[in-house]
Amino acid sequence: MTEDGGAPGSGVPGSGFDAFETDVGSPLPTESELDAGEAARLSGRSAADWPMAALEPGPILPRFIASASDEIEGDLSSELARRRLLLRDALGASQPVTARETFAGRRDAMSTLIKAVEEQRVHVVVYGERGIGKTSLAHVFAETAREARYHVIYASCGTAANFGDMFRSVLARIPRIYHASVLPNSPEGEKAGSLEPMLPEGPYGARELAEVLAGLVGTRVLVILDEYDRVVDSNFRREVAELIKNLSDRAARVQLVITGVALNLDELIGYAPSIRRNIAGLPMSPLAPAEVRELLRMGERAAEIRYDKDSVALITRMAGGSPYLVRLLGHQAGLNALGNRRDDVNYSDTRTAVEKVIADWQASLPRRIQANLVREEARTHWPLLVAAARAGSTADGWFTVDDVVTELGGNATPIGVERDLKLFVNVIDLLERREGHGDPQFRFSYPGVSALLTMAAAMARQEA
Fold this sequence. Notes:
Elements: H1 36-43, H2 50-55, H3 76-91, H4 107-118, E1 123-128, H5 134-147, E2 151-156, H6 163-171, H7 187-190, H8 206-213, E3 221-226, H9 234-249, E4 254-261, H10 265-269, E5 279-283, H11 289-303, E6 306-307, H12 309-319, H13 323-339, E7 344-345, H14 347-364, H15 367-373, H16 376-380, H17 382-391, E8 399-400, H18 401-407, H19 414-426, E9 431-434, E10 441-444, H20 449-463
Parallel strand pairs: 1-4, 1-5, 2-3, 3-4, 6-7
Antiparallel strand pairs: 8-10, 9-10
Helix pairs in contact: 3-11, 3-13, 8-9, 11-13, 12-13, 12-14, 12-20, 13-14, 14-20, 17-18, 17-20, 18-19
């Protein structure tokens, strides 16, 4: 760029275009206003040369490797494209898993969830840290339940979730024929309709909703409320707790499966002792090494590749039991090998994948956060920040001074750690602080910083 902000060689300040000499006040003609001869004159070519110039080959622009219907033309290069797409389908991390064919591990969690619903007839709360596989488990569980002829309704919660609107939508997806008040051969039974009109007009609560749902016969209904932690309306949470109690008291053929980011059961559903006997908590733990290997084998079978021992070990260490990171790193490492026309995914492919993920994460941070991470104070206190990142790898990201001291291995004093943490709250904007009933709590002010620091530190230890 030049000093005036233009591109090098630009005749127009602040632009990337060369200046043309034209009459004062006369705009440049548009392409549609130029005939072939005029266009040739401006380009310095003769009119006779112009048609040939248009046919001269230039750089080929990137193209999609498959159509919208996932069809690939059958030439030599398409075989590689096919394997890349199959690897994406098996290990792609951008979307949750929705089918059993691409679901690995979590057999114990799936078995516990099914038994809670089928044998105990309780409502289930699935909780754990972000990226641990809660939504994927919910989708695959829903598919499994539908095969057993359960009527499954999936709903994703948001910050604006409203109890009345949410469950009107749920009842609109339950056929009216399943209600005890509707006889199969009656005019009502022969009409296509839902339970939604059976709700009172206007506002209603958990009691009125439970009265309608208590009349279900001939099927069982599972309502999956995903991302429940995003709900900010306290009334929504109170009504859901009341609904669980009412459904249980009436032995209704309806059960709720709630998933969300949380450290424990109370954090997600609140303190509700009256419904404790009606719910089962299912904490999602990190993947075991054998489950990581099982997940990578899906990519191997799909794309006809093989992750070597060192590659698997590096992915296992970097992912820290996160299914999301196993998929992300496994997918990128596999693409690196295929890009070099190799079937074996080696350590170098995986190391490059880790470096790319770290670089992508860092680039996605606000410039302010990036600048703060490279400040001298951050470099000086790097072990402290890494320890804070490990301490903050919980569902909500909050940690205490004692948590950081523990991560540092007892080589620091609580007073010194708290003093240094405050530096990154007040002087350098990397942390935020809140006062509670006990010790003050801290967490990184921007999502992703904790994971970035943790993976970068793990990679540094790996290379040491």
